[in-house]
Amino acid sequence: MTTEAGSETEVKEKAEETSAQPDQSETAEQEGQEVANVEGEEKEKGKEKEKEGKEGKGITRYLPTWFKKQKSQSQTSPTKEVPPAGEPVCKATEGEEEPAPEVNGHAEEVEEKEEVKSEEAKEATAAESDSTASAETEPAREEKVEDATAKSEEKTKEAAEAEGAEEEQKEKEPQGHVEAEADGGESQTSIFQSPLRLVRKNKMKVVVCRVTLLDGTDFTCEVEKRAKGQYLFFKVCEHLNLLEKDYFGLTYKDSHDEKCWLDPTKEIKRQIRSNNWHFAFSVKFYPPDPSQLTEDITRYLLCLQLREDVSSGRLPCSFVTHALLGSYTLQAEFGDYEPDQPRPLDFISQLTFAPNQNKEMEEKILELHKSHRGMTPAQADIQFLENAKKLSMYGVDLHHAKDSEGVDIMLGVCANGLLVYKDRLRINRFAWPKILKISYKRNNFYIKIRPGETEQFESTVGFKLQNHRSAKKLWKVCVENHSFFRLNAPEAPTKARFLTLGSKFRYSGRTQAQTRLASSLIDRPAPSFERTSSKRISRSLDGAPVISITEAGSETAENGRDPHLELHSDSKSPLRVHGDNIYVRHSNLMLEDLDKTQDEVLKHQASISQLKRSFMEAPPPSPPQPNQWEKRLTSSPATTIRVQQQQVTPEVEIEETVVIQEVSRAVKPGLVPVTADSPATPPAEPEPKPQDQTEMVEEEAAAVEEVKPVKPERASSESESEEEAEYQPNVAASISQTKIPEEKEEEEEQMTKEEERQQVSPPVVPAPPVEASEPAEELSQEEEEAKKEDTSVVEEKKDDQEEKESGRETEESTDDPMVTPEEAPEGLILPDETLVAKPTEEQERPKMNGEASLVEVDPRLQVICCSEPPVVKTEMVTISDTFAAQKTEIATKEVPIVHTETKTITYEAAQLDGNGDGEPGVLMTAQTITSESLCTTTTTHITKTLKGGLSETRIEKRIVITGDCDIDHDQALAQAIKEAKEQHPDMSVTRVVVHKETELAEEEED
Amino acid sequence: MAGLMAGFGHYTHAVVRGIPASLAKEALRTSQAEVDLTGARTEHDAYVEVLRTKLGLEVVELPADESLPDCVFVEDAAVVCGETALITRPGAESRRRETEVMKEALKDLNLNIVEMTDENATLDGGDVLFTGREFFVGLSKRTNQRGAEILADAFKDYAVSTVPVLEGLHLKSFCSMGGPGLIIIGSSEPAQKALKIMQQMSDHRYDKLTVPDDIAANCIYMNLPDKGHVLLHCTAEEFPESVKVFEKLKDHMLIPVSNLEKVKVDGALTCCSVLINKKANI
């Protein structure tokens, strides 16, 4: 398109890189620097890629949100000359509309830069292509220099989304204006050289947006009709002179008159779905400790929001607190108490402090106001916030819901987790670390709970919301709050975008950790701003319906049809644990959940057909190699499980897996004879099972219909291991990851339903057979492991969603939100397990998580450990599709081949209490904990079994160290062993397996 | 200023009530023990004396009422937090009138009085654990959901979480606060279970001090201007093992208070007083 002559290669490269971005964080660490060297290779790939690129829309549709966001960000950074000379903006939006142009345009930008910057830029662009859509390259690099570590990481391309984004933001924030001017000018010139741009500019349609600010005033501005939410938001922040903007957001009212958050990464036009371009600027994430905010202006805005929350009753507080907060408001807005002021009470009664404000309160406010003499407005604001933040409902976003018995409750989402209220009483609380998964389906909202000290099994708690919309809204709020408050960096975007089913929605902004960091770098004189009076008119948009916890009862049941929520316990109820259970406190560990849900669905028809096509065209994959189609399939909820069981390590370069087995192994009751479904065989036909739920039946039926056509493809598909990558948290720095599956996007629901069925149903094989096969599967897996020297940890995952899919969903009525496993309905078995455990060349994913424990718990047999020859060294070529998993769009055409050298060394203690495969035992508990730090992933799996009256506790630790050649393996290993010993001094290390995988051929993976 | 949750354990006043002779025979009890009325009165006098003399609180002594055998246990009649006093509706029918005198007394102390008028609501102050940051309300034989709701309404600033009390009379029959963020808890299974629930429900972290005897976990904590952390707890004669645990609290001024007789009618230390923090201003 707009590519200038001779730049073709580069464009391709760029495109490639762009598309490759998603996995960079996980995989391509070494590549960054090699960009130049590998260019040749890249070109080849580029050509393939190019093809893909031509496939057009489909691809960009699946660009990860962060990617889009970043692009738009650069364009949305409001330049001074926005409306008239807003080329960047309109280009941005246009580009996003049209995938192909976008990529090119993107490259062009960089190219232009390169002309100026020559080689430097090139290097930089490798790492920054995502973040430097327009004129930001230079500043970004400067930023890097500042930050040594960041820089090095960046070189290795690891910067990926998390850091890339962060840096970009950082750079943008503090230097915003200067930069905007300088760069704006620069790019402007270059832009004007392109006639095309001018044309585009003329085409730009502008809309006037009205944004109600926190002080009640309106801000109007023009935005291009296709502008994204972010553009408008940035404009507002610029208007407000606000830098710490991540706590805020824009809301609009949807067609149902409900307040919704404007997604910054999406076009405004598509969200509002009406011609009402009216928004409200609001606090989105209430900082738990406002004193940590850097700027007074930020605190002021937060105060404004809270004043409204308080006066509207949304934030309930006592008389005394009302008075106290009111007095600080007076001090902040009017300064010291004026004794001379005539009839202060008249004046004060025009201000709104409380929903039920009365004379008595006003007198109290005045009285307290007197005592604040000498306090500056900023100090008064701080005092206001110090008191407001302690209120129990501070920052709690309430949603009406019903519990399993149809009782009206309120769900409150806040920084710490999810709160459950009945009337005014808190009846339960689920802290983020306790929540393994958040999902919704139709109007049901589910959270899967990590087992507590007294429980052995995970349980799923369901709530009914008024409708699908509100369930989704709640889900989104949860995703965002979890990401913002709990993660260090936003969760990686769905990696296999192309293959992504379901909503890609993730929180795309900065997390609190990031924004705090950014704030600490703010270096500007405190901006002056004017505090306005509290005589606010209530903002038309903002408050929407004031939800208070007491209102719950008044809600009418929209869907009274079934007041009972289904609760799924992953545990099989028949399985009771006898004896004491072990519980390992892990609250301080970072927890991660790998599982996915069935709720992921197909995205778009077009992409599916594309997928099919690419499948057909794809080079014959080596047998174990998953192809795109399969991957696609696996992203459907039902298949998820299979995937999880056999995961490919996303880390390619060098990986070390250290499995430290500190314990004797659990033995499995070697019963159940089984036939494991071979993955290679066509999936069994789904037999619709007796359904207790009508809705389920519907789906199943559809599924059946669709299955057959799909079969042929499936038959050839082998392993679906990498699907996981898509949802695998790959943000190294993340504190914890919760898989947050979402049901399909509303809009696409209809379209994709069919497809979804196709995908989903195959795995939904008759459950009984599947169950039976599970043991066998494990066995085979075990064998396989032994053979391969892969990792010795058996991973099992189960997805409760899966269960649902399978239609065995029991309408469980667990009224009590605090569902204990005992109460929970009988868990279901995953049908999918059958498909798993195929001896494949693929390395098992060295991760386990809470999900795994589910299966372990399963009464059926568990083989946890496999015997391996004491020392083995093998070398094998692994043809792995790893990349593709994360890769996404590119992957369709290309079969990434990674040659790896794999070396496994096993040290086994002589006295190892037998590999005990055959020895039956009763599994008592199983638990998996995963923690992640920058370059290591530690998975701890604890099982306790009862064998012949003795209980055994066995802990397996798997530590994956990822990095480039610089890792001192020996040291890492020693450290790992040492730590293990320290952590469990009373246990002995019985086996150490070192698995080292080195990438042989340097492969420039896009 | 009187910020929220400021000064947990600061008290200036205590409301107590005399022991009626009817306590010996008529007071409600879960066991069948014989109460020595004189012993109980001596005990109670010593208790009041500690509050008044040793700790310097201004003690408001309400007269005993023979028609209210349980009236000495004033805690159940009112919940005071900050400037607000919630007059309860005790779960035991025979105790309902205990609130009348209490209300007047608290009114005289210029507290904002909130009354529990809902006839479906019951609440005993013994089921209310205020941690300084939030309330836990035990749902027991004496306290129901509605009562807890009204309490939540009265103290809007704070989270109010409910905790099922499966055994024992009240929530505070096996726990109490031992300091800011420190919960003293009995070691019985129901007590430990309740603690877990409280921990789960809370956004705050609490340390716990586990004592072998449930009833010994009922202590009175204060933070007084010139005395620092003060803990009134059971005596070594009653619960030697538990006292050993308290003695590990190095920062606390430990004051053993005998409660041999009142405990026979399920009276614990906290039951016998309502503590109030009256500030000069606000």
TrEMBL record, chain A:
Composition bias type Basic and acidic residues, residue spans: 40-58, 114-125, 138-160, 167-180, 558-573, 705-717, 785-811
GO biological process terms on file: actomyosin structure organization; cortical actin cytoskeleton organization
A cellular component term, taken from the record's GO annotations: plasma membrane
UniProt KW keywords: Actin-binding, Cytoplasm, Cytoskeleton, Phosphoprotein
Phylogenetic lineage: Eukaryota, Metazoa, Chordata, Craniata, Vertebrata
Name of the featured protein: Erythrocyte membrane protein band 4.1 like 2
Main location per the UniProt record: cytoplasm
Listed GO MF terms: actin binding; structural molecule activity
Localization of this protein: Cytoplasm, Cytoskeleton
Segments of this protein annotated with the region Disordered: 1-190, 553-573, 670-826
Record InterPro entries: Band_4.1_C, Band_41_domain, Ez/rad/moesin-like, FA, FERM/acyl-CoA-bd_prot_sf, FERM_2, FERM_central, FERM_CS
SUPFAM superfamilies: PH domain-like, Second domain of FERM, Ubiquitin-like
Membrane-crossing residue ranges in chain numbering: none
Biased composition regions of type Low complexity, renumbered to the chain: 126-137
Acidic residues bias (residue ranges): 774-784
Domain FERM: 207-489
TrEMBL record, chain B:
Keyword tRNA-binding carried by entry: no
One annotated GO biological process: positive regulation of nitric oxide biosynthetic process
Catalytic residues of the enzyme: 170, 271
Entry binding sites for substrate: 28, 70, 75-76, 95, 142, 265
Keywords, sorted A to Z: Hydrolase
Superkingdom of the source species: Eukaryota
Signal peptide: none
Name recorded for this polypeptide: Dimethylarginine dimethylaminohydrolase 1
